[in-house]
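Morning, I've got a small favour to ask if you have a moment. I owe you a coffee for this, so here goes:
>
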Amino acid sequence: MDFDEAVDHLESLINHEARPRAGRGASLSLEPMRRLVTAMGDPQTAYPVVHVTGTNGKGSTVRMAAALLQAMGLRVGAYTSPHLMDVTERICVDSQPIAAEDFGAAVGAVARFAEHLGMRATWFETVTAAALRHFADEAVDAAVVEVGMLGRYDATNVVDGQVAAITNVGCDHTDGVGDWRRGIAGEKAGIIKPGSTVVLGETDPGLAEIFKAEPSAAVLNRDRDFGVSADRLAVGGRLLDLYTPRRRYDSVMLALHGRHQTDNAAVAVAAAESFFDAALPDGAVAEALAEIRVPGRFEIADRHPLLVLDGAHNPDGAKAAAATLAEDFEPGGRRFVVVGMQDGRDPRAVLEAFDVGGAELVVACTAPTARGIPAAAVAAAAASLGAACEAVVDVGAAIDRARSLAAETDVITVVGSFTVVGAAKEALGHSSGGHG
């Protein structure tokens, strides 16, 4: 297949990112994915893997861990989701997205294996298998793989992670019924294998015990075995002192905004150390974290007025985004919020966590997917919190509306969904870094 044929094929498949299955874990199975990769010769066994799950921060942690392994001289594959503008963003080798022709070839190969098996692989299974094959074809020294949803039955769980990293447990991909936090923790713990070193970022003792109950080689606990001992604001990010079981890393520049990213950095450094079973050189840590970029995670798109893109789409992510704006930027002007969300989320809970009641204006838009909540419904949720709001369906037009009202000292934040952030980047003329 060429790239366009691959995209057409993917669009014909069931896509659980577009139609999530929260609350229906009993119907899930990893067997179709196991059959598929077995037929392909188990490409995921050709390289060691750092497997990363968590409710928030896993994409940032994957990028940081991959950068750390690269700084140590390895050729590193990274698999992330979702993408912002182009599907090729999900599959990178040494920070470069897969070429369009290689993506087409990899998806085409997976499709042929699936047809031979008489199975209809899902969208995510197909792209995941394509990534695992591409990494084998590229002879990477290691791969850092992000879980799509939860963990135990996620298509990525055909890998046996040498390191299993868990950032945290929060409210996402769940129907919220019963003791959902323990339920989510149990599913995320499913990525832990008997040979894994577990890097556990979740600190709730009641949840930590769920991860520790899984057979593993070792467990490292945040705030006990590794963590952040000092965190200061710096120009362009944060200045950190980190500690791990093997050493301290003092005055490390992290080129990301937000206190929550410091915890992700601690998980990434501990994961990289665990991968090598050795401390990392100062130079490697400094190089990796000072140059890290994570598109769509508190990304500064403009300065006058300040325009921030953040994919926060659940209450914990929204709370972190609000705290980052207040602490890292201390905006003296008015706040404008452009927000669009997908169904399966609680708009009122997310907007409340983002403190929209204190905004000058909320401009609600419709996330540009089949799951997009109508702009009017998002605006109604904002209004229920006392916010002044308008509904403008198109993402680009919603940003234009906010810009038309904002002064140079004001701040505009675009939040609520990675699909909205991707549409915002396209409207602002940003490059995807991938195909096209």
